[in-house]
């Protein structure tokens, strides 16, 4: 019997299935756009189709899933999700995929899964206590304690996006409120801040590219976002006392220079040795972490 497992990454724009061996090596992948606007049934059907394509090469054990949204750790049901996956709130992901795949399914939040992957075979593999922040279109976080993800009472532990930060009072967070870290330090935040200053609406990726090319306004927006992120992380280190802080996600590279400077300047002396590092698994992190969950359900 094969001891390989399948890990699923269900995001707002793409869904990925990965065949992962016991050492955390990705052996094969399947990928498709997430049919988010078609509703939860279409999203689940797509995920099941990708996973089923890899299951003949896997063992008979569970499938792991990392998905956008807050996941009830007891049931694998989505407690809350943003409009990136319309109608996703309330979806019994574990139950529905288990029915489609005819095997057990274990589900966690995508950033929690990414943290599991990084602590297994990524940049946090030598650390048992890690704070991971994922900076992409939005902003997510996860806390790993003694090698296990802290889910909290409702599955939402690590939601750094909603920390209040100065300078974001007029910027709207993905939760609908104003003044939160995600409204500044995310792809959406970069786009909103740039539009406020220039009246030009661009993607966060384009703002980051313009900043890298030396455009003053874009550089100022990115610098402000990175500094806000770094200061917030310094405060969280004092609260959580991790061994390592990891920054993942598509916008991480743009924000890390300013974030590192602010982090070092604001970090209390007692935690001066706690490093801030880029994550190591890239786009594989969620699927690899989901596979880890399938292998070790108490991770």
UniProtKB/TrEMBL annotation:
Keywords: Kinase, Transferase. The keyword Hydrolase does not apply. GO terms for molecular function: kinase activity. The keyword Isomerase does not apply. Signal peptide: none annotated. It holds the Pfam family ROK. Coiled coil: none annotated. Belongs to the ROK (NagC/XylR) family. This is Glucokinase. It comes from Micromonospora krabiensis. The lineage of its organism: Bacteria, Bacillati, Actinomycetota, Actinomycetes, Micromonosporales.
